[in-house]
Amino acid sequence: MNINWKQLNKEEVFDKNLYDKILQIEDFAEKSKAENCLFERTRELKCATAVKDTYNAYKKAYIIELKSNLAIDFGEKAPIQKMLAPGYYKDKDNCIRTFDKNVLITATPIEPIAILKNEETGEELVKCAYLHKGKWDTFIISRETILHNGKITKIANKGVDVTSSSASVLVGYIRDILNSNDIPEYKSTSKMGWHKNTFLPYDEGIEFDGEDDFRIIFDSLTAKGDFGQWKQKIGELREDNVVLKMVMGTSFGSPLLQILGLPSFITHLWGKSGGKKSVAGRIAMSIWGDNQKGKLMFMMNSTPNFYFRIAAFLNNIPCFFDELQTYGGDLNKLIMLLTEGIDRGKARADGGVEGVKTWNNTFIFTGEDAASNYNSGGGTLNRLIQIYINKDIVDDGIGICNFLNDNYGNAGKVFIDYIKEIGTEKIKELFKEKYNQIIKLDKTEEKQAINMAVILLADDLACKCIFNNQKPLTNTDVEPYLFSKEEIDNTERSYETFLDECEINKNKFGTDVTGEYWGIKDDYEITIITKKLREILENNKFDYNKSLQGWLEKGLIEKYKDGKFSRSLSRCGVKANYVIVKINKEE
């Protein structure tokens, strides 16, 4: 700024054009130097007080006007190039500073670029862009965190320049930009799959806001390689391969569940080590994306909460859990909870309640052990399609896995587009046909028939839209893999277990018992001490009350007028509470 301060006269030191030139100096130190020169000259002219008052009043009005119009130019590569930032500017070193006192806000250019409202929780989040190591990146964070002095420091982990001492000024800067700009607003979700007629990750119209927690899995839901080669290779493997078609049918069937209003179910491949069970699971997941370990393939040596979080995120896309034998918890309970499709509610530290996680997808399990046992309840078996593997599902497992490493994720979008084209009503009609065909076999219960009908329908649709009208699965193909009515009937199994235990311990019944006494037994009924009956059932993992209620419905036991199954009796000189169970003589 070239001004001869010594030659200014009294009229010139009151000139507003001179004040504009001073206030337009960007460098804070140079601006302060110019102001000092002005005030020094006014002292020589003996009008210092009047000029200072006039200048400060003009400066205040100038800053107010400037703040209302001041915009930061973040550069051509920024998601939003210019944003109103009243009172702030970006210096030559890309640092954000306050205009009046030149306070450093942050050395990282940062701008809020979108407001996201999560459909599931109603929570409002802010999507921010920031320049880090010469490249623009983004993150999504709750409004509560980005506008809280004590929480905003969390974004330092992403590479944003913020400390506990600068947190408050950065909060003020973000808040002012949010309030001064028309920030675009979008619906958002932390779940994949259906959102009305939109299906993530394929469709637009809804933003994904869960990238921090599920970035690896989200990034795995992508396409790679040659779709034509994938169709040819996998199509050849599927030819006359019932098991592989069933596993792939489980995978394709996942997005159909919500359309049909049906609950989740599990298809489990089990058998001795080998058999290419994991390879079959990877083939099924290659429909949707990168099917390698840690991507869309997860191990079973985790906690239930881990499975729930993965299921809730994928939502309508299938989950693949490998190595069932490594799970250390109650498998029957896990199967029930996963297929219920809802996590338990949890209280928050602030007194609120966390949003309850839900999901509606299929699951693929593989492992050396069966997922059910003799004591598994009918509820467990009804949610499970279990396939014993005694020979390799496919040949050359290593070669197939190498192929899948570079070819995946194209079929999912094709399948989703196809079922959208067909429409909900047609899909429901086709499902009903498949279900009726299975239920007419009179081999299994309704829920088993529903699960298998989903697999049949999904395989049929996939054959039409992807596998060039390949022959789809038939009822005859899948009938051997349905649990029979007798297998599902937990009442019958608990009754048979009870009879077996009584026969094994028949020396504990009658008048000549020398050791532990259980009751009396003849060809028609067993009168047993209630406590012992409860022990037999619970030691074999059967629910006492459910078992006796089932026996009552089958006429194997009676209730007394007081609503109880037991009564106080004296048998063989032993007075106790006894239950009388009939012996079914039917062959």
Descriptive report:
This protein has 21 helices and 21 strands. Strand 18 and strand 19 form a beta hairpin. It has a five-stranded mixed beta sheet. Strands 14-15-16-13-17 form a five-stranded parallel beta sheet. The chain has four domains: about 5-70, no CATH class; about 70-190, no CATH class; about 225-485, Rossmann fold, CATH 3.40.50; about 490-580. By secondary structure, it is α/β, with parallel strands linked by helices. Helix 1 crosses helix 3 and helix 19 (about 490-505) crosses helix 21.
Layout of helices and strands:
Blueprint: H1 16-23, H2 28-44, H3 48-69, E1 71-73, E2 82-84, E3 88-90, E4 96-98, E5 104-106, E6 110-118, E7 124-132, E8 135-142, H4 143-146, H5 167-180, E9 185-189, E10 193-195, E11 198-200, E12 207-208, H6 211-220, H7 227-238, H8 242-260, E13 266-270, H9 277-285, E14 298-299, H10 304-314, E15 319-322, H11 331-340, E16 363-367, H12 378-382, E17 384-388, H13 397-406, H14 411-422, H15 424-439, H16 446-465, H17 475-478, H18 485-488, H19 490-504, E18 519-521, E19 525-529, H20 530-539, H21 544-553, E20 566-571, E21 574-582
Parallel strand pairs: 6-9, 9-12, 13-16, 13-17, 14-15, 15-16
Antiparallel strand pairs: 1-2, 3-4, 4-5, 6-7, 7-8, 10-11, 18-19, 19-21, 20-21
Helix pairs in contact: 1-3, 2-3, 8-9, 8-16, 15-16, 19-21
